[in-house]
Amino acid sequence: MLLEEAMDWFMLLRDTPADPALMAAWGDWLQASETHAAAWTRICRTWAALGDRPAALPDVALQSTRPSPASRVSPIGLRLSRRSLRLAAACLMSAGLVVALFGPALQIRLEADFLTGAGETRIVTLADGSRVTLAPYTALADDVDGTARHVRLLAGEAFFEVERDATRPFVVDAQDASVRVLGTAFSVRDTGHGTRVELAHGSIALRPQGVENGTELTLAPGDVATVDRRGGKAELSRVDPGDIALWREGRLSVTDQALGDVVALIQRQHPAWIMLPESDLATLRVTGLYDLSDPDRALTALAAAFGLQVRAASPYLRIVSSR
């Protein structure tokens, strides 16, 4: 199916946009017919609707297969013209994809001191002796020095085990909240629509970003604070402290979380893209324990609890739906 082929190309180009051989092969596929280009355009528009805004120039590529009368003088010239136009279109497409798909990611990469990829966790020790375990797809900027202890969670999730220092509070800045501690263990996660903070032990003070009155929330072990990105409102809930950041052990424990958020957590372990085309499914509430060592099995177990189906549309795409 051409849509599935187009999705495969999309994911390959997203993962390795600067591979000349891949770009040439993609150009050949795109040039095969107008239906190939139409499938590519449809996939790009779908991703644009999801907010990734990939830039596609299929019309430019197609024009290279429709030479003007003047270009028909020589078959060799025509082949050269097609090749040149195809390579130019491929370069333009590659540049567009890099900017649209990787613009935010490139900015994060420039700012980050520590990064992880799909299915990768990493433990780093900061200058003050504090340990940070990075979940997959996480970026962290380290500003810890002799006078201040300050880090920024740029993306993903991290579990912090902070060395106590009464003279220098440890501060974690996330997009929606700032967390201040002296010495404790807690996790901070960017959910995509807010920031979630879970406290394993000790005590922390949390301040939502942009709150004018400066109100701080003091969390106790087992407390969870979720700060909404749009309104800055913080909601409190509870979890078993022993279940916090179980992804460090290859497990995922969730309590009354949205299905869309849980799918995003499994996505961190999965090399394929996971789609929820029915928006109402994302709001279903989930409580359960899942084995992350096999992301496909975890995804199937999650879907089965709601009578949903998981379809492997290609090696690079999983679709979760009610039919």
From TrEMBL:
Signal peptide: none annotated. The keyword Metal-binding does not apply. The keyword Transmembrane helix does not apply. Residues 4-45 form the FecR N-terminal domain. Gene3D superfamilies: 2.60.120.1440. Residues 114-204 form the FecR protein domain. Keywords: Plasmid. It comes from the Bacteria. This is FecR family protein. It comes from Peteryoungia algae. The lineage of its organism: Bacteria, Pseudomonadati, Pseudomonadota, Alphaproteobacteria, Hyphomicrobiales.
